[in-house]
Amino acid sequence: MRTTFNPSPIGPPSIGLIRAAVYNWALARHHGGRFVLRIEDTDLARGQREYYEPLLEVLRWLGLDWDEGPDVGGPNGPYLQSERRPIHLDVARRLLAAGEVYESFSTPEEVEQRNRAAGRDPRKGYDNADRDLSDARRAAFRAEGRVPVLRLRMPSAGIEFDDLVRGRVELSFDATPDPVVVRANGDPTFTLANPVDDALMGITHILRGENLLASVPRQLATYSALERLGVARFTPRFGHISSVLDQQGRPLSRAVPEAAVLGYRDRGFLPAAVVNYLASIGWTHPSAGEVFSPADLVEAFDPRRIKPRPVKLDTKKAASLNTAHLRALDVDGLTAALRSFAAGMLPRHLSARQEELLRRAVPLVRERARNLDEAANLVAFLFQPNDSVDPLAEGIASRVDRTALRAAAEILSGASDWTEDALQARLKEGLGEDPDFVRAALTAVRLSITGRRVTLPLYESLVLLGRENSLSRIEHFLETSSEHTPVVSGSR
Question: Measured on CA atoms in the order 183, 131, 117, 139, is the torsion positive or negative?
Fold first, then answer.
């Protein structure tokens, strides 16, 4: 089995596009086959790698490794369609010589006039009028300066094909005019280039968007012609997956922020969770439930389980799946994921002590964070200098009762046993019975050592920082916040 993902890089990689990559990758891996990546960049400036690099970036991040394609190579290259133009034109010349395609000189205006004269809808399109032009007529058109397009001769009989997703589908070739396979400027069209590339690369199965279902008659006719020519040995199996809709039920567009896959990476989603989510849009695992790993997907993948009807984007489900995957990580896995994601929040190179500190914090983070961004924000304070907390940031100073903070600092400075239970007992005994004052003191300690309103639990944070660092941070906060003392009801 050989599957393919052949995107056109015309914008940021979207949910709908990369979902097709997930399915083709899973199908190939399920059958022990090969996954081929080909970039269909014929409409872009040749050699502009920045157009398709985001596609490679997304696939690498998600772990959708390709066996042949850009940056990997393979025996069937090149894998940029813009570099395959000579191959397409050579096949077109052979098809013309064999009578499978023909030269067409009709202008759009002439086609419209003929349709009106015949009582047909003028928008019906090309009427196959140039199929049997004589040599003299073609010469006359050339003498007028006309440059022909090449059109494929479509068969007249209908056909059925077995869609990998939708089952038996009946198609009528009568409603499909002879399509252009080479434009007047010499550029091959999708109708020719895509089947030629798939045939020469030996692609056996293709899962793609349902928007391409209408192109199946043209492509099947092209494959038949290629088989008669000896270019193709067989016609691949097609499967057409459903569209993804936005929350209003409209086709998902790249203008919707949640449609951009790289945005999920930037918000701290785990690759395995995004693969889980993309696969589950219209597909269900037979036994694992909603949460499953890429390995689970590969083991159970069957395109017949893809729902043929459109499915709405569900960002809440994506977030829930990510939380489940994050909670399932062990300490090593979450530590590695945090190091990779939080490059700007953690030291570039962690010392052995810092590495151990991060590992100790990870179990606390795992139960509180929903994504890596939240996790990184929860642990970032552990790796900042003791004088880095700014009392003015996020309005911290206005929320701190300095009298309560000073009382807590005096209690903590006398602690010799710096453990969670000991610190909790010491503060509880020393701060007295006034609940407002106790609350103000604990809030003040938390804000002064972390600089954040949402943090890890107080006593665990104190222990992770250690006695010297904790007291240093409290003292720094008292010194730098002296001009911003609020009136707090808990003061005494």
Answer: positive
